[in-house]
Amino acid sequence: MKTSILFSPGLRVGAVAVALGLVLGLALAAQPVRADGLDVPIYEYGGDGLPTCATSVVAGLKADGDGFLAVRSGPGSNYREIDRLRNGDKVFTFDQNGKWFGVVYGGSQPGCTSPDKKRLLPYRGKKGWIHSNWLADLAG
Q1: Could you tell me if 57 and 130 are in contact, meaning their C-beta atoms sit under 8 angstroms apart?
Q2: DSSP state at residue 135
Q3: Radius of gyration of the chain from Cα atoms?
Q4: 13/105 Cα distance (integer angstroms)
Q5: Is 56 helix (H, G, I), strand (E, B) or coil?
Q6: What is the DSSP letter of 23?
Q7: Between β-strands 54-58 and 135-137, what pairing exists: parallel, antiparallel or unpaired?
Q8: Which residues, in sequence order, are CB contacts of 108 under 8 Å at separation 6+?
Q9: Measuring CA to CA, which of 31, 48, 66, 85 is 20 to 30 A from 15?
Q10: What percent of the chain has pLDDT over 90?
Q11: Counting Cβ atoms within 10 Å, is residue 3 exposed (0-12), middle (13-18) or buried (19+)?
Q12: pTM, full prediction
């Protein structure tokens, strides 16, 4: 009895697995991905002529705890951790969602001037969402 390699059970299973992998890969690639890596965008609010951000510092993290404040891709602990901040790290808060602030950090000070209207935060560099429990306002 002659068996063709094209119809062998092992080859069919492998071909199905490859096809399934291609379909899943294409489906995942079709999901929108934000250029800044955030699941929830950070906005800058304006129109009133007031500065749009405040300067804060990470404070109150316990030395015997984790020792870091998780920066998340959205306003909640259910979002991905994308970075970590430590006591003394300076952040610029722009957006707020409950007890979570959308921040810029780790680079030069962004301009905090008021745009004409609400807009996506245009600043390059590190951005993310952090919980307000570990923020202290910086004077000046």
Answers
A1: no
A2: E
A3: 23
A4: 50
A5: strand
A6: H
A7: antiparallel
A8: 125
A9: 31
A10: 44
A11: exposed
A12: 0.71
> What are 65-121's pLDDT values in tens digits?
888 999 999 999 999 999 999 999 999 999 999 999 999 998 877 877 777 778 888
Q: Which residue in the block uniquely carries the two structure tokens 């790290």?
A: 89
b/e map of 66-104 (b: 16 or more CB within 10 Å)? eebbbbbbbbeeebeebbebebebebbbbbeeeebbbbb
Contact 103/91 with Cβ under 8 angstroms? Answer: yes
- What pLDDT shows up at residue 85? 97
């970590």: which residue's tokens? 84
For residue 89, the Cα-to-chain-centroid distance in whole angstroms is: 18
- Alpha carbon of 93 to those of 53, 55, 81, 127, 135: distances in Å? 5, 6, 18, 10, 10
In sequence order, the 6+-apart residues with CB closer than 8 A to the CB of 102 are 42, 43, 75, 93, 94, 95, 96, 121, 127, 128, 129
